[in-house]
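Re: the 139-residue chain
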Amino acid sequence: MGRVYLEHAGGMITYHCEKCHTYLTSESRLQSTAFQGSTGPAFLFTDVKNVDLSKTDTRTMITGEHIVRDVFCKNCSLKIGWMYEFAYAESQKYKEGRFILERKLLTVNEDAFQTGVARSRCGSNSSADSSNVSSITIT
């Protein structure tokens, strides 16, 4: 097996795999925070990088029947969410081609490129200050 090629599209606030910290997406691609996953709150993104997708599966969800693919981190293979391939209900068509990532399985890095310091915050929606910083990585 060769080297895994990983992409990074940048951004002021970025989302990474909680297990291996591989870049997944940025806040500019965040469409909604009003979703539920199997581990709790989940986010809807228009695009993600560095993931592998499973084969399609038809699932009945809270909002109806959908054809989806499970989404796995390309680096560590952690299942981090799913992608909507097809929605049967007209009102759900906006989800097609979009990705749900489970909040509990993400690490959020804020101001990584603005300050040169990546502030990692897990599971918190409050503003980043020294009391909310769980780790600091000098870049």
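The mean pLDDT is 83.
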